[in-house]
Amino acid sequence: MSGVVIVGAGQAGFQTAVSLREAGFADVITLVGDEQTLPYQRPPLSKAYLAGKTDAEGLLLRPASYLAEHRIVHRRARACAIDRDAGRLTLDDGADLPYDHLVLATGSRNRSLPVPGADLPGVHQLRSLDDADALRAAIESAKNIVVVGAGFIGLEFAAVCAGRGLAVTVIEAADRPMARAVSVETSEAFRIAHEAMGVAFRFRAGVVAIEGRDGRVAAVVTAEGGRLPADLVLVGIGVVPNQELAERAGLPVRDGIEIDPFLATTDPAISAIGDCVRFPTRFAAGMSRGDRVRIESVQNAIDQGRCLAARLAGRPAAYDAVPWFWSDQGRYKLQIAGLSEPDDGAVIRGSGEAFSVFRFRDGRLCAVESVNRGADHMAARRILTLGRGLTPAQAADPAFDLKALAT
Ligand code: FAD
Predict the structure, then answer these.
(1) In the CATH scheme, what is the code of domain 112-237?
(2) ipTM
(3) CATH class, range 331-405
(4) How far is CA 280 from CA 34, 103, 258, in A?
(5) Class of domain 4-109+240-312
(6) pLDDT tens digits, residue range 300-312?
(7) How far apart are CA 19 and CA 308, in angstroms?
(8) Closest C-alpha residue for ligand 1 atom 15
(9) Which of 12, 26, 88, 349 could form a disulfide with 83 if both were Cys (CB 3.0 to 4.6 A apart)?
(10) Which among 42, 234, 257 is the best mutation to test ligand 1's pocket, defined by most ligand atoms within 8 Å of the CB?
């Protein structure tokens, strides 16, 4: 028997294997992953792990014994080619794996900074456990830290460094932090919070070069002619989907592997899930970029893994989970339910260090950004899932019972 072969032993791929077994799937499951470790969680890499509050063991998705007990074969190898006619996957160790069903859960990789000096020692990125270990060691002796990109990972890293009393400057091309993902109101609260922690920002600034001295990073040069001394640089300017394996096999890709509502590619024997896919969702209705999205989140990876496993175990259903996400930055916990874009309207509930921004598109609630307001976030997930009507006036009214609307 060939069974299910899963490429990518990350959050989505591992969840598929776990959920298949939980659903009673009895056939062979082979998990192919190109990292040396057991499957682990990435979010703590820029939070508790970086801050030294948990160890590598604490990152594991399941203990080592789980794989053997559940007959999940873990192959540490890189998948290089798919022969769709023969139903075989070729690995870089020379093996050819036959499959009945192939799952592509290859994730994403960091976008690289296309400037001279970006490969100097001392210039880091953060995606894997190896990256986090290198950063943890580098922080110990760093004096001047520059972060390129005020996205979630850059800001989480900045918060951890600032918490250790280190000097951090964040350079960002947009005019505010997390500009693509949150409202102006949330951006502003985080700018103030980071500045209070000692983080300095340079907005509307582009990086044109990274300079070295004695073979390692010494400064970051901006388009405006600024020269920021740096002995540690973290580049966090977004990710690109790992779609090349699918593309080489002739499957449609466009900023992600294209899949249908059941998470299937155009080949009925191949499905794809997680960071590497673009899929249709009702939660993107009315968005300027169309209703197909690529989402980089643990929620999406887990829920797609579960949904796909259910189909492979004989209980097909369209994927319809509400997107949600979180980010921890210093004392601030940001939780986002739904999907928004910069032009969506914003209504605030709460104030100070605990508030939510309700986002409206075409008069309908499309997303809620909650800062230190976990109850609002949980209610928002339910309200969006159920498609309940909420007016901007109700959202802003502290007396309006969100929880009641969510039940
Ligand atoms: P991944 O978990 O990246 O797994 C893909 C795996 O496939 C990788 O191990 C990769 O090496 C492997 N692979 C790729 N190509 C091949 C191949 N050809 N052969 C074999 N193996 C291959 N999300 C949140 O919701 N909240 C957070 O707070 C948060 N924080 C994050 C912090 C960091 C530092 C990072 C990096 C991510 C964070 N995320 C967060 C995002 C979240 O971790 C990802 O969305 C999630 O891991 C996606 O799961 P995935 O399985 O699609 O991809």
Answers:
(1) 3.50.50.60
(2) 0.99
(3) alpha beta
(4) 29, 18, 9
(5) alpha beta
(6) 999 999 999 999 9
(7) 9
(8) 106
(9) 88
(10) 42
